[in-house]
Each structure stands twice: as structure tokens, then as C-alpha cells.
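C-alpha cells incoming
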């Protein structure tokens, strides 16, 4: 099992319940493909480094999880089509 960190930036145009639902869907995708979510770190609303889709702010979430090497690819494929996710990045943490 490898350790991964997934950074997700969610749009500010949705309410708190919808934003929580997006993060729950991401966690469900991770567990569906054999991963185990160890921590979800909510950084709150932050200013983006550059404008994305005419937005200057986003809600940042950092999700750490453990899984085999196939899981991050499947997770990225599912996150890519989520309309409320502005940006994402999944990296493997060194042990």
C-alpha cells in the first residue's frame, strides 16, 4: 500500500452542503477502488494563484489516503468530470 495526497480545489459558487457532497463523492471514489482515506484537511477559502474559469477564489481540501498503485488513476478519471472541482492534483508521498 502506497500513501497518496490528493489536493482538490472546489468552486465557491456552491453552498456548504453541495461542497461537502463533492468531498464525500471524492472519498467514496477512493474507497470504491480499494483506497483507505486517512485524513481530510479543510483549508477553507483561499485566493487562487491565477484566475481559473473567471474565478479568483476556491475552497481547498487535502485528502490523504492509502491504496495500491491503480487507485489514483481511477480517482483522477472520476474527479476530472466533476463540474464543481476546479483543479486537483494527486501525488504519492515518500515513505
Amino acid at each position: 500500500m502506497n500513501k497518496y495526497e490528493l489536493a482538490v480545489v472546489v468552486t465557491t459558487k456552491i453552498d456548504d452542503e453541495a461542497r461537502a457532497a463533492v468531498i464525500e463523492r471524492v472519498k467514496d471514489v477512493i474507497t470504491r477502488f480499494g483506497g483507505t482515506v486517512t485524513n481530510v484537511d479543510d483549508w477553507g477559502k483561499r485566493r487562487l494563484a491565477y484566475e481559473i474559469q473567471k474565478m479568483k477564489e476556491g475552497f481547498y481540501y487535502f485528502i490523504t489516503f492509502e491504496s495500491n498503485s491503480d487507485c489514483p488513476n481511477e480517482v483522477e478519471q472520476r474527479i476530472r468530470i466533476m463540474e464543481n472541482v476546479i483543479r486537483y492534483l494527486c501525488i504519492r508521498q515518500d515513505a
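note: The CA atoms of residues 66 and 79 lie 17 Å apart.
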